[in-house]
Specification:
Spore Coat Polysaccharide Biosynthesis Protein SpsA, Chain A, 11 helices, alpha/beta
Length: 303
């Protein structure tokens, strides 16, 4: 199987050498590296071009957007440009373990049911970054590569996109369900979970850098992110229930999840407090009880 690594960049020159070195030195050769820059104002593009030329990386290329698109749309475009069997999303500011591609690609080659595979990570901080907690992921076995258990929290992304790799078969389903302002990794994770093709590689394969200018800092908290998550989950649920992949055994769980999303929308967006009490019935759909109480907090907040 051939491998594509796709990276988006924006004003990230101070991190790039470590990240690019960790790609160049992978124990399994990467078949193509595609980098898409979102109109950086530092010397990110110049640095990457010089790096490619200095190391004669003929299978690497960088393009620059005609205008700044924002990181979500930039990732959509670069994912769509990948040509190979397995696609690895890549951030500009992390450091990959040198055997990441080798180990994860071997897992795909061994198990054709894997459509999305996510590894563990080690979080480290600098320049005001906030540590990222690695949530436990329930899996069907204790093996190093195991399928994620399907339960009420299937929609909840438990690993960041930089730990993921996915088969190209998943890409058109992602494109169909992506909406502006939506993180790519959340859409990929939810679809793969519904299709029962979501797996975990239980090993740390990436050093996940957290700093004050991480793009993900903008989406973890806030009214906009909460509403996006509600709408995203409803969109994917509705697609799934009408798709060729629909499994009758998941009907009740998916319909209940959609009801939970509808009630949250009425509470947070339409400001109808009665729905907070109705949501108690669906509390197991929250990642934890603190998230349930968080919804009433956003009821009182303005947009």
């Amino acid at each position: 199987m051939k491998v594509s690594v796709v990276m988006t960049t924006y004003n990230g020159v101070r991190f790039l050498k470590e990240m690019l070195d960790s790609l160049k030195n992978q124990t399994r050769k990467i078949d193509e590296v595609i980098i898409c820059d979102d109109r950086s104002t530092d010397n990110t593009v110049e640095f990457i071009n010089e790096y490619i030329e200095a190391h004669n990386l003929t299978n690497w290329k960088i393009t620059v957007n005609h205008r700044n698109l924002g990181w979500e749309k930039n990732f959509l475009n670069v994912l769509n440009s990948a040509n190979n069997d397995i696609i690895y999303p890549c951030d500009q500011d992390d450091v990959w373990h040198l055997d990441k591609i080798e180990k994860m690609t071997a897992a795909f080659e061994k198990n054709e049911n894997i459509w999305l595979l996510s590894s563990g990570f080690h979080s480290f901080c600098e320049n005001g970054g906030t540590p990222e907690i690695q949530n436990p992921v329930p899996t069907e076995t204790a093996e190093i590569v195991s399928r994620v258990v399907f339960n009420e929290k299937y929609y909840q992304i438990l690993r960041p996109g930089c730990t993921m790799a996915f088969k190209k078969e998943l890409l058109p389903l992602f494109v169909e369900n992506w909406k502006p302002g939506t993180p790519h990794d959340a859409v990929l994770w939810t679809i793969a979970a519904l299709l029962r093709k979501l797996y975990i590689y239980d090993d740390t394969l990436i050093e996940y850098r957290r700093h004050d200018s991480n793009a993900s800092n903008e989406i973890i908290h806030g009214y906009k992110y909460r509403v996006n998550a509600i709408n995203r989950t409803r969109t994917i649920n509705n697609w799934y229930l009408n798709s060729e992949y629909f499994d009758e055994n998941k009907l009740q769980t998916v319909e209940n999840c959609t009801n939970w999303c509808d009630y949250r929308y009425k509470l947070i967006v339409e400001k109808k407090p009665f729905y907070w009490f109705k949501l108690f019935r669906y509390r197991k759909y929250y990642l934890n009880l603190r998230k349930y109480f968080g919804d009433i907090y956003y009821f009182f907040r303005r947009k």
